[in-house]
Amino acid sequence: MTGDAFYLLAGIWALAILAVFILAIRLSYRIEVRSPALTNLGGFPRKAMMFHTITNMNVARDEETQAVRRRMYRLLLIVLAGFVVMGGLVSDPFLRVRA
Questions:
Q1: Whose CB among 32, 69, 86, 89 lies 3.0–4.6 Å from 38's, allowing a Cys bridge?
Q2: List of residues 6+ apart from 56 with CB closer than 8 A
């Protein structure tokens, strides 16, 4: 694989993984809205409480919210798999780009 093709593929891969991560963050915000203990009452925007939603801490226990959590888990697993695959490609000596 030539250097230019590898860099183009890596850039597209990075954008795809970033898009999936943004979808997971949006689901985390939806879980926060559905959970009374995680609702933002301050009025100021804040970071997503992904640690709380991943660990099911103060999250509403209804079936719909838990289904959204499972969907968020799947998206985060896709992100993790993306890092593993790209790390494997970069560290494989047979697929390295030769200058």
A1: 32
A2: 69
pTM for this one?
A: 0.83
Q: Tell me if 79 sits within 8 A of 17, measured CB to CB.
A: yes
Interior CA angle at 30 toward 27 and 33, to 5°? 155
Taking only Cα atoms into account, the Rg of the chain, rounded to an integer number of angstroms, comes to 18
Instruction: Count CB atoms within 10 A of the CB of residue 55.
Output: 9
Q: Which two tokens stand for residue 95?
A: 């697929």
Helix, strand, coil percentages in the chain from 3-state DSSP, rounded to 5: 70, 0, 30
List per-residue pLDDT tens for the chain, 99 residues long: 567 888 898 899 999 999 999 999 999 999 988 998 887 778 787 788 899 999 999 999 999 999 999 999 999 999 999 999 988 877 766 655 555
Q: Which of 15, 12, 4, 7 is nearest to 90 (CA)?
A: 7
